[in-house]
Amino acid sequence: MLCITCKVEAQKSHLYLKQTPPSTTPEIFAPGIISKENEYEFGSVFSKDGTEFFYGVDTGENSEIRYSRLDNDSWTTPITIISHDIYGFNDPFLSPNEDELYYISDMPLDGTGERKDHDIWYSKKEKTGWSKPINAGENINTNKNEYYISFTKTGTMYFSSNKVGKENHNFDIYASERVSGHFQKAVRLPETINTNAYEADVFIAPDESYIIFCATRKEGLGRGDLYISFKNNDGTWTESKNMGASINTNGHELCPFVSRDGKYFFYTSNKDIYWVDAKIIYSLKE
Question: Which Pfam family is an annotated match for this chain, by its short name (predicted)?
Fold first, then answer.
């Protein structure tokens, strides 16, 4: 029994790129391996078991999606798995059963020509990797921008769009149920979350108990702050509130993600990926 326990603990220590777990004070995640000084790391997602890691990178010339996995006792050197000479790819997120990888791209529907507005796309998992990009469809995408995806455990997609309003910067958060493999017409979230300002980069808890997103508001601490709202027993959302100075700075905080084990909260700040003990989320619940 003792040997089995030791083996389990050893396996756990290999997760999350073998990084020492953070406290309730945010730290840069995997400096020099994932978070690099000369690059801008965006959205990131771990697989359910914590052994695969996908993240978006702006190289300065374009954006691409990179990947690393735990192979026996070591993590593989990150490689680029989705990229293009002209079009950008970013904000990766796995579907609930992890057989689809979602992301955003400014690629036209036919895959040729000049860049367009950002749509949400996905690739299906195949034996040799991931399929060619598939557009998420007209119930998700419009002739404006849609980006940053997350899912509930039942497959409802949360994302942001600036499809309503004259201001290109006026993004709101939407949700689309998936029924029999098809996304339904997206519904805008209520005023406790959406305002006349910018709300985007949404992470939804798999059980929909809370939602974290980036917003630009007058009371904010910087160019973009992370806000949180909790779901009430009656299904309504609490008034969203700033996550505070322990998370937000005078810069731009965005791209939230919480590991499936509920232990760690990841986000982007100062062009790097940070992580922190997820206890900080529940400390904000009234």
Answer: PD40
CA 251, chain centre distance (Å) = 19
Q: Give which of 79, 158, 146, 97 is closest to 117, Cα–Cα.
A: 146
Q: Which residues contact 229 (CB under 8 A, 6 or more apart)?
A: 192, 193, 210, 211, 237, 238, 239, 240, 241
Say if residues 174 and 149 touch (Cβ distance below 8 Å): no
In angstroms, rounded to a whole number, what is the distance separating the alpha carbons of residues 96 and 154? 7
**CA separation for the pair 115, 170 (Å, rounded):** 21
Distance of CA 132 to the CA centre of its chain: 21
pLDDT value of residue 257: 98
Domain ranges within the chain, ordered by starting residue: 28-283
| Consecutive H or E run containing 276 | strand 272-277
Distance CA 118, CA 147 (A): 7
- Residue 234 φ/ψ, nearest 5 degrees: -90, 5
- pLDDT recorded at residue 61: 86
DSSP per-residue codes, 134-171: EE--TTT--SS-EEEEEE-TT--EEEEE--SSS-TT--
Provide the b/e sequence for 164-178 (b: ≥16 CB within 10 Å): eeeeeebbbbbbbbb
| Model pTM above 0.90 | yes
Determine the pLDDT at residue 13.
77
Question: In terms of CATH, what superfamily is 28-283?
Answer: TolB, C-terminal domain (2.120.10.30)
Tell me how long the chain is: 286
What is each CA distance from 214 to 70, 228, 242, in whole angstroms?
30, 9, 9
Block means of pLDDT (10 residues each) for the chain, 286 residues, are 45 86 97 95 96 96 96 96 96 98 97 95 96 97 96 98 78 97 96 94 98 95 96 96 97 97 97 97 88
Residue appearing with tokens 């690629």: 107
